[in-house]
Amino acid sequence: MTVDWIFEWLNGLFTTLSGNAFFLIIAILVPCLALFGFITVYAFVVIYMELKVSSFIQDKVGPMGQGVGLHAGKWGVLQPVADALKLLTKEDIIPESADRPLFIMAPFMIFIGAFIGFIALPFGEYIIITDLNIGIFYILAVGSFSVIALILAGWASNNKWSLYGGMRSAAQIVSYEIPAGLSIVVVIMLSSTLSMQGIVKYQEGGIFNWIIFTNPFAFVAFFIYFISAMAETNRTPFDIPEAESELVGGFHTEYSGMRFAFFFLSEYANMFVVSGVAATGFLGGWQSPIPGYFNTPLWGIFWMLSKTMFLVFMMIWMRWTFPRLRVDQLMNVCWKVLLPISLVNIFGVGIWTLVFG
Amino acid sequence: MGIVHGQEMVLNIGPQHPSTHGVLRLQVRTDGEIISEIKPFIGYLHRCFEKHSENVTYEQVIPFTDRCDYLASMANNFGYVVAMEELMDIKVPERVEFIRVIMGELQRIASHLLALGVYGLDVGAFTPFLHMFRDRERILDIFEMTCGARLLYNYMWVGGLSHDLPVGFMDVTYNFLDYFEPKIGEFNNLLSHNKIFVERTADVGVLPPDVAISYGVSGPNLRASGVKWDIRKDEPYSIYDRFDFDVPIGEGIKGSVGDCWDRYYVRMLEMIESVKILRQALSQIPKDGDVHQTIPKKIRPPKGSIYKRTETPRGDLGYYIVSDGSPVPYRVKMRSPAFTALSVLGEIANGWMMSDVIAILGSLDIVLGEIDR
């Protein structure tokens, strides 16, 4: 509840100006800037991770700093920085036939969609920007914000490949929202709250109280959520909106330099948000797996980050192992497999709670 | 409510596109994701191979054959020299024949590794591509060790070879074979039997045997349709009749005979057969013999013509050489297997989706250098 806390603190500090709207703006800005810094650092870490993990999967060493002079640091740890610098200094090209305002707006919109999801992610008992009473619902809602941005990018580029990418992503993300949402309903049913902190508190008391292990239906729900989340973030095997070998680059074909970097960044930010929701909803969030131990706030951050990053690692692992699905197969998986299973899950959890709860 | 009628869109895939395997342009008519018509446009890589050949001497044609199918240069050399030797009635020493077969089969493995790896890339799997490139690299190292070149070898000459085998060649090649054989199982686990890969390729782009034959499709693409036709077996050239190997054909294990998965898997099986041939050739090769012994001082074939075909990794490659008795060929015509493979695309890819067209094109394993020449 950082925003509230800063606001109170500022009010207490300057009692004469108490309740000033200016304080509220500061109270909102400070955590958001911190969050922005966190996303940037996280992006560097996860890009490095993606480079190295993919390299090890592919039997190569990945970025390595060797020799003297300008190089990417020991074991290539500075490679993401170099990549970012390259993207920053690249020429910013806007195609002549593109719809200029929409073309410029799309990367920012997609980043906002990824960014505002972070607001309701809890990193500890008190470390959350704002604990909305509808937190999990809010994250699901703003998660679909990126669809608009992707269609916008696809349409505004005025390129047939981009249009394909935009249309594919619209169909994909909208359909995968449904199984993802229905799996989250399982969590909500068990914890009987929509607040992220409430869900985490429900899972108190060690690894066997985590929702994923409480009953078999929740276990299935976790995997359905995770698959749908992967589809929502456009990662292989569900990367058909980008589909390098088919659509060149999909919706970001025409984007270059910093605008492209924003698409890139928000993909990774989105990965963190959906993994964070999975960690919070199913894996106990910032709770320690051993009851009574490692429960300090710092450990809370550690648990939350490690659970989330483990899921991010899983996504990277799958990306570099699987081929890509076809667009109709993708829809089949969603509507004919995941959706019925998640509906059965809801009934199952209801009955399970009645019988054993 | 009536049915919503969309407008058809004409889309150019290529010439600059990640999965056209070179500079090919496909003009497709699409209704959403469904493709209703495909027109391949070629010629972006035309380098006048046949016309050039009429202006250079016979031995100078060999480097040009390298550059046609640049992924199987050895096999292209092989076809040309076999045709020339038949025209000039040259009998090359045993050792030369064995070295040629060894090189031809190594080249087949290298070419298939690339074809399969890139096919994985076409359907979105990046990792098998790099794994296969890693192993192809070892074959290129062997070629480099033998003739100094890694891609365009100019290794087989009319009547002989440019170099004899280097010291240590046997060990390196045996090591490679021992290393490579278990890798095929690994590739199968990683890609061939992957559920998503099978979903994407089985029953997609089925090429019936009669269509394949009427279009003149050859090589692995034809065999995947269930036709047991391999020039090495049915019309043996060089010393291929001495080796014991099978001709794998498509059996429709995952879908129906002649689908993309079969075309993919036939290549995988052919690599195993090539390893078999290599092991036999390496153990039987004569210890001595001069590879330059029968190279003619002057290449002046008698008046006449020859058509000789050989089995390259891509199929039935034929050379038609007309000689007027001078040191310069009157005409050199190349019958390219990749060209016929591409011509069948419009027949089998109509009505499939965008992603399938890429998968079908990849499964035909075309090389634009050979199509355009």
* Largest sheet composition of chain A: none
What does the oligomeric state look like here? heterodimer
What is the string of helix and strand elements of chain A? HHHHHHHHHHHHHH
Class from secondary-structure proportions of chain A: mainly alpha
- Strands of the largest sheet of chain B, in order across it? 1-2-3
Order of helices and strands of chain B: EEEHHHHHEEHHHHHHEEEHHHH
Helical stretch count of chain A?
14
Reported for the largest beta sheet of chain B, the result is: 3 strands, antiparallel
Q: Low-confidence stretches of chain A at least 5 residues in length (pLDDT < 50)?
A: none
Number of distinct beta strands of chain B: 8
End-to-end separation of chain A: 32 Å
Indicate the proportion of strand residues of chain A. Answer: under 5%
Walk me through the structure.
The complex is a heterodimer of chains A (357) and B (373). Chain A has 357 residues and is mostly helical. Chain A has 14 helices and no strands. In chain A, α2 packs across α13 and α4 (100-117) packs parallel to α12. The two termini of chain A are 32 Å apart. The model of chain A has no long low-confidence stretch (mean pLDDT 83). Chain B is α+β, with helices and mostly antiparallel strands and 373 residues long. In chain B, 48% of the residues lie in helices and 13% in strands. Chain B contains 15 helices and 8 strands. Chain B has helices at residues 49-53, 58-66, 73-88, 94-122, 127-147, 169-192, 195-201, 209-215, 220-224, 231-234, 260-284, 337-343, 345-349, 354-364, 368-372; strands spanning 9-13, 25-31, 34-41, 156-157, 160-161, 304-312, 315-323, 331-335. The radius of gyration of chain B is 21 Å and the shape is globular. The A-B interface holds A 54, 57-60, 160, 164, 236-237, 239-240, 243-248, 320-329 and B 9, 11, 17-19, 33, 120-127, 130-131, 134, 190-191, 194, 196-197, 199-200, 353-356, 358.
